[in-house]
Every structure is written in C-alpha cells, then in structure tokens.
Amino acid sequence: MSSARIQRHRLTAAVTVVLALTASAAVAVTPATAAAGVQAPAQAADAPITVENGIQVVSAGTTGFLGRKVVNGDDRYLWTTYAGGTTRALDPAYVWYGGGSDIVFARKPTESSYFLHDMAAPPNPFWVGLDSAGTLAGVVDRTLIFTRRDSSGTFETTLKSAQPGSSQVTTRAVPLPTDARVLRAQAGTLDTVLIQYWRGTADASTFHLAAVDLATGKIVETVQTGTLAPRSGVFLSDSHLAWVENPTGLSAQLVTAARGGGERTSLSLGATPAGTSLDAAFLGGWALTAQKGGGAAEFASSQFPLVARHLGGSGTVRLLDHVDSMAPAPDGSVLVRGGSTSKGGEGLYRIAPDGTGAPAATLVATTGRTTQLGLVSSSVPSVVDLDGNGGRATLAWSLTRPNAQGTVTLRHVATGAKVERSFSGWDLREASTLTFGWDGMATRNPGEMGAFAPGGAYTWELRAKPLNGIGPDLLRTGTFKVTRKAGPHDYTDNGSPDLLARDASGRLFRDDTVKVNSSSEVYSPGRAQIGTGWQIYDRLEAVGDLAGGTAGDLVARDAAGVLWQYLGKGDGTFAPRTKIGAGWKAYDRITGGSDLDGDGRADLLAADTSGVLWYYRATGNWKAPFAGRVRVGGGWGAYNQITAVGNIAGTHHGDVVARDTSGVLWLHQGSGNGGFSARVKVGGGWGSFTHLVGVGDADRDGLNDLYAVGASGSRLYAGTGSATGPFKPAAFTSVNSDAARFDTVF
C-alpha cells in the first residue's frame, strides 16, 4: 500500500473520532453514578429541543450529546442535553472527543495529555489527566485507544482508561500482530471495541477487523475483510461483524460475518460513485447505511438517504433523506444529524426500533430549517429608484442552503420587459445568499439588446433546483415598483430618450436609445413600429410633456394647417389625436421641448415664413395646451433648422440651437421670459445633417444633449453645460444608420 493511501486511511480514522457541538467552558465532572450505556437516553417529554443549524454530532451519551460547529473556520465544541436542550460551550483551547457515553475527553493541540470529564455529573472542577501513548485511534466510553510504532519498527496498540473521580489510569496492551497498522477504533458492543487495521506491504496488503475486550485488552475475535479497505462503514454487534465494501468501484455491498467464524453473506447496496464512503451501523437485525454529506453536496446520489435493510432480506426502510453525521448511543440506538422532507426537516434524529421491531426515526432536536430547499428571506425594496445610485439596485435572497442553482427573473408587468440571471452554488457561498446587483437594464423581446428598464409595477420570481437532488424545486415570487424620472423624449417611462422616425409610406417607428458608461456608442435595443398613416402630416415635432403625465407628447400639422396633439401613454405608444387648432400653416418650422419661462413646462416655438419667431406658452391643460402666441422677434428666416434643446448652457432656462444656410450652428440661450439672449456661435460644418433633435439627457450625466441625423448616419453631441462650448465631440450611434429611408426624424 502506498504512503499516500495509508495517510488517507489515517485521516479518515482521525476524522471519525473527532466529535463536536456547543456547551459552557466550565465543565463539571464527578464520579459516574450508574453504568452508562445500559440506560435509555433521557429525552424531553414533549416538543423536540432546538439546536443550531451548523451543528454536527459525533458522540451520543445518555443525558446529552457532544457536537461540533465551525465558526470562522475554527471548530467549536458543545455539549447539549436531551432534556431541555441546554447547550454549554466547551473550552475552545481544547479538542474534544467522545465515544458512546456521557464521558468526554479534552486535549490541547500542542500538548500530549488528555483530560476526562463526566458531562452527566453536577458541576465539579475535577479533571483526570491521561498521558498520550501515541496516535489516538478512537474513543469508547472512558477508554482511549492509541497506536504507535516503536524504534524497532514494531506497531503497538494500547487501551488507556480512567474512572471519573479517580486519578487511577489503567493501561492494557492489545496483542495485535506487530506489523498491524491501525486505521481506526470505534465502539462495538457495551464491552467491546472494534479495531480496523491492515498488514503487509503497499503492493500486497490485507485488511482486518478485531473485536477487543475493553476490560482486558484481549482480542475476542478477528476477521479478514479482504485486500481492499472497507468503504468506511464497519461495525460490530453481539452476533455479527459487518463492513461495506466496493468490489467493482461503482457499486457497494454490505458484508456480514456471523461471530465465531460463521458464514458470510453479501447484500447489494446499489450503485455508488467511485470513491464514495458509506457509513453504517447495526440496529437489531437491521443494517443502516448512508453516504454522509448529502445535505451540503452539489451532486445527487442514490446513497444519500439513510436506509435500513433487514439482514434476513425481509424489507427495506428509508429513514431520512440525508445524513451529515451519526453516532451510536449507549442504549443501542443511533443518533443522526440529518434531514427529512416529510418527518421534521433538519435536526437530530434518534433511530430506534418501533413497536414492530422495524427501525424508525424520531426527531430529538430541530434546527428550525426545512430539508427541502427553502427561502429564508428576501431583501427586495418595495420601491426601487433607478435614477438614483447610478441607475443600479441591489436585491438579495437568502436560501436555506447554498447547494442550489436556478434563475431570478425581474419582469415589468405592463410590457413584459425582463431581466434574468442564472446562479449556482458559487453565487450563494456567502451565507447562502444570492445578491443581485441590477444594472437597471431589461430586455423586451428575445434576441434584443438590453434597454433601460421602464418604471412601474414589477414581479420577481426565484426558481432554484437543489443540487443534491433532495426535495422539490423551489419557486417563490414577489412584487416591487420601479420609479423613473420623466424625460422630454421618453415615451417608454424608462428614463432614456426615444427617437421617432417616419418613412415615405407614413409608417411611424420608435427607437429607444441606450448609452452606457462602458461604451461611447449609443445604440437602439430594437426598433418598434407604432403606427401607420402618418403621411397626412407635413410637420411632426416632439414637444415634451404637455398633459402633466410622465411621458413625452408630440404635435403634428396636417396639410390644411390644423395642429394635432398626441399624448404619450408611457408604453411607447400614443393616445388618439386631439385637435389643438387651425391656422398653423403660416409656420414652416415648429420646435418644442424647452421650458422658456421657468414654470416647469415645455413650451412651443414656431417660425413663420417671414422669419418671425413666435412663443406659445404651455398651459399644462391638455384640452387647451398652449396660451396665445407671443412675438419673440424677427430674423429667424436665416435659419433652416431651429431646435429646442432644453437647458444646455447652465442658465436653468430652456435654450435653442439654430443652423443657418451655410451650416453654422448658433446657440440662443433662454432668458426665462420667453425670449433669448444674443446668439453664440457653436461651430460650422453642421450642414450635412438633415435633422437636429434636442433629445434630452441621452448619456444620463444630468446634462441635455443634441442628436444629429444625416445621410451618413447619426451622432450624439453630449452637452457640457457651458455656453462657450456647449457640446463634446460627436459620439457614434447606430440608432439611425439607415436614416436615408426616413423623411422625418424627431
């Protein structure tokens, strides 16, 4: 056998004997009163006691059990009583051991002495010291089993026992073969310890079990189990020796040998993944087996359930869905830390015969957790402001355990726009909590790029599948609301501007614009056709919010000079038109979207054919949206484009940019009373653009921007807030790369 293989066996042995849970640093020990191991363990008469979720049991006594939990990566040991559930934390400077009684031992990792404690006795600071006699192989009641190799290469096995209340220590040598390398020792019957060892070399080894009398150290019986190490589970009863072996590597079997050299029988346990270790125990004429660790496993296994098989072949009983730790109790029952989806969830169960003699599981202590995957809590605000915190939000869901995978879906009720995130156990590693850092994006249709999520009512849906295959899938839902700040060109209530475009056949299209911090480009997540028949209008203009709602509105002039308004519904479409009035044929340029008088409402400007600019103040009443016109001034005939852009110069009033016939762009800053200050030259070269649109805040930096469309495509000019240089250099957009097909973009 290789040294690595030997080391794995020894590690297994060490893990088997280390025990743990929670109890108090001052531990009482007095002389034992009755023969521990012949009484039935005391239990509360009514409801099960409560223990911490992370607790593991490795030693069961008459009045309580020793357990371990991991705190910040360190083992913490506890003693918990069955009656009342009192838990005492044991001194964390020590490692604590036990084996089938109320006796526990403690040792500092840096020292060689062991100290005995009787956990059933009243408080008494009486400690009994035991010097180490080699490597600890196991603990049975008040006896420690040591193994060591002397200077001549001979292996020795020793039993050391102490009596509570007495300083006397008795030592017995176990006459195993001198080449016997002990793997582990564990409780057998009330007066016997079962020692597992191997002999030979790395290339030719045999494995053995020895039943050793605790009182004398004499070997009562030995049996050779084979040339391969048993698969973890070995046990002893008054009538049988038994072990679990894995002859094919992919299936396991339970082998029993009658005491006294009797006949061996094999019972198939079914398929097992390669390398799987199965724990086992006897209960009357039944064998219990389980693959430990199923509660936290990230894979499914048919061996996770705790199953009892009748040695006579007359039946099988499934007791629990998984086992994390198990230890024999003094009365012959087995105490198991595990879980059941049908019996009581996660906790400690006592496995003992029922009235018919068949094994049954009774809940002794509960952790308060379900065995099936569950939702402990959700942290989803009732209102999510996606205009604050950089357009992001943090949502979280805590599950009962981290070994799960699934999806979280956030869905906008009105439009179906959604965002979906898949998660696995890696995402749940922190306190079994899924933290969803939402970037404020969502997708309306499959295959589309993400857009900013619209405001309004949302649902969240959490779907999770247990990776260990235990219990049903989890489905939980909830609701929340998203708020967005309305923008002048926002028709979809998602805080980002939309661009409208009409083609020659009269079809009207909408493109939502998206500009994220990680890219300078502006894109459209997907173009939507929102109407037909718009060829009847010769002027179309976005005018901001006229009706006091959250969505932008538009006006349209027909060939007869009648002006119509279309109120935005907030879902990307418009309500049926309403008539504003006639006589608008006199104007060849109409623009809206700037608040010219500081009342918070976007106003309308119209230039007539003689070059006079007129101001129409918004009333806030959609039935009569504009007050009578007021003359701003003449000379506006020099411009072939007039575009309201909102406040881009930092004066808190609505501004206008105008392009002259030579392609020079000029800034007219609003004065706050419906007029403008002296114009400021922005720059030349703007003649290549067919449409200039005051799109609002497209890059979400708090400043208004300008969108320009020409035969070569479109560009976004981000605002700077400065009158002397109001725009940053152009940024490429893919929104209207096919601008030539449209006669109007607004």
The chain-level mean pLDDT equals: 87
Instruction: Determine the number of helices (DSSP H or I, runs of at least 4 residues).
Output: 1
Radius of gyration, in Å, reads 40 Å
The amount of helix comes to: under 10%
Main sheet properties = 5 strands, mixed
Quickly give the structural class. mainly beta
As laid out across the biggest beta sheet, the strand order is: 1-29-28-27-26
Task: Produce the secondary structure layout.
Layout: H1 3-17, E1 49-50, E2 56-60, E3 64-71, E4 74-81, E5 87-89, E6 95-98, E7 103-107, E8 113-118, E9 128-131, E10 135-140, E11 143-149, E12 155-162, E13 169-174, E14 181-187, E15 192-200, E16 205-213, E17 219-226, E18 234-236, E19 240-245, E20 251-258, E21 264-271, E22 279-283, E23 286-290, E24 306-310, E25 316-320, E26 322-328, E27 334-340, E28 345-353, E29 359-366, E30 375-379, E31 383-385, E32 393-399, E33 404-412, E34 418-423, E35 433-438, E36 441-442, E37 451-452, E38 456-466, E39 474-483, E40 498-503, E41 508-512, E42 527-531, E43 537-544, E44 553-558, E45 563-566, E46 578-581, E47 587-594, E48 603-608, E49 613-616, E50 630-633, E51 639-646, E52 655-660, E53 665-668, E54 680-683, E55 689-696, E56 705-710, E57 713-717, E58 731-733, E59 742-745
Parallel strand pairs: 1-29, 31-39
Antiparallel strand pairs: 2-3, 3-4, 4-5, 6-7, 7-8, 8-9, 10-11, 11-12, 12-13, 14-15, 15-16, 16-17, 18-19, 19-20, 20-21, 22-23, 23-24, 24-25, 26-27, 27-28, 28-29, 30-32, 32-35, 33-34, 33-38, 36-37, 38-39, 40-41, 40-59, 41-42, 43-44, 44-45, 45-46, 47-48, 48-49, 49-50, 51-52, 52-53, 53-54, 55-56, ...
